[in-house]
């Protein structure tokens, strides 16, 4: 019996030509807390982006901001920030956001 592998993702293959994203996981729904940045405290050192496990920080030119679609809410950005610019806030406080 031959079992054929059915591709789950349109870019799934044993090699990549580098022109497309191979796997993109929207993991933001896993969070129980989200990082909230106080821009006035941020000195743009980049430690939050350097230590972010899913690498979901956007470079905004004068600060880094978490992409909440991919942020898992681990809080490492808040722990690594030397100035305390990030604060972890429970997701329940954002329940009414549209």
Provide structural commentary:
This protein has a domain at 28-94: Alpha-Beta Plaits (2-Layer Sandwich), CATH 3.30.70.20. The chain has helices at residues 47-51, 76-80; strands spanning 33-37, 57-59, 64-66, 86-90. The protein has 98 residues and is α+β, with helices and mostly antiparallel strands. Helices cover 10% and strands 16% of the residues. It has two helices and four strands. A hairpin with a 4-residue loop joins β2 and β3.
Summarize the structure.
This protein is α+β, with helices and mostly antiparallel strands.
Q: Specify the CATH class of the domain at 28-94.
A: Alpha Beta
The string of secondary-structure elements, in order, is EHEEHE
Query: Looking at the structure, what is the overall shape?
Result: globular
Q: So how many helices?
A: 2
Please describe the biggest sheet, giving its number of strands, its sense, and whether it closes into a barrel: 2 strands, antiparallel
Ends apart, CA distance between termini: 50 Å
Percent strand equals: 15-25%
State the share of residues found in helices, binned by percent. 10-25%
Under CATH, the topology of the domain at 28-94 can be stated as Alpha-Beta Plaits
Corresponding CATH architecture of the domain at 28-94? 2-Layer Sandwich
Structural class: alpha+beta
Strand order of the largest sheet: 1-4
Radius of gyration: 17 Å
Spans of at least 5 consecutive residues with low confidence = none
């Amino acid at each position: 019996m031959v079992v054929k592998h059915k591709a789950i993702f349109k870019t799934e293959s044993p090699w990549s030509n580098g022109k497309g994203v191979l796997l993109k996981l929207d993991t933001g729904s896993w969070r129980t807390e989200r990082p909230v940045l106080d821009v006035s405290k941020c000195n743009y050192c980049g430690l939050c982006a350097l230590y972010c496990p899913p690498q979901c920080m956007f470079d905004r030119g004068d600060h880094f901001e978490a992409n909440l679609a991919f942020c898992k809410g681990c809080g490492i950005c808040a722990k690594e920030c030397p100035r305390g610019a990030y604060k972890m806030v429970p997701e329940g406080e954002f329940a009414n956001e549209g």
